[in-house]
Amino acid sequence: MADDLFGLGKIAEGTERLTREFRELVRDLLKPAANELGEYFADSIRLYRVKAAMKAGALAKEQIQKSGLKQGPLTVKDTVLLLEGASLEEDDYLISKWAGLISSAATGGKSLPAFADILRQLSPEEAKMLDFIADHAIEIHVGVGQVGVEKPMLKEACGLTDQQFIIRVQNLHRLEVIVQITTGGLEPIRGAMGWGPLGQVGLTALGEAFVQACRGPMKLV
Description:
The protein is built from ten helices and four strands, in the order H-H-H-H-H-H-H-E-E-H-H-E-E-H. By secondary structure, it is of the alpha+beta class. The chain folds into two domains: 102 residues, no CATH class; 89 residues, Orthogonal Bundle (Arc Repressor Mutant, subunit A).
């Protein structure tokens, strides 16, 4: 079609199938309001957003199956927050985090509504930073219980320059998921100098819970 500059004709051909599959996904995750929400998402989310949400939903179902836990229905609030958030992502790493939140919520895990708001504000690098801290944290001050990682190690592992690192740790601190470790306790130092590339950082209690929820439910032993 000569005037179809953006290929809308071809997009329209695939929309019916994708929206039908998306409705089925929503019905599988949520009852009894599934029909209404399925129609809401099918009508309001563009094709590329449907694909991202479908990918997150499929990953979430796979995580639930691997965990061996029983899947329960999501609330309307969780469904809207999580599927809409996932639909906005283009990065596979972040999509996998949305899948983790969906599967955690669907299996009765500690997936707070605030987690969706936090994840929505993260870059892929920041999500990887949180995972690195969670996986490599050690006791910094013996006997005090302060657990974290050296900032130079974190910066190098994520391939960031000093400026990129400062910006990202400040954002993570703003979201209250990390804290700077000092000899006097877990007290953040504000400003670019305080959040420079030297010293140590650790996860807050909120950060620990967030990272765990983003990884999906743990397998039954």
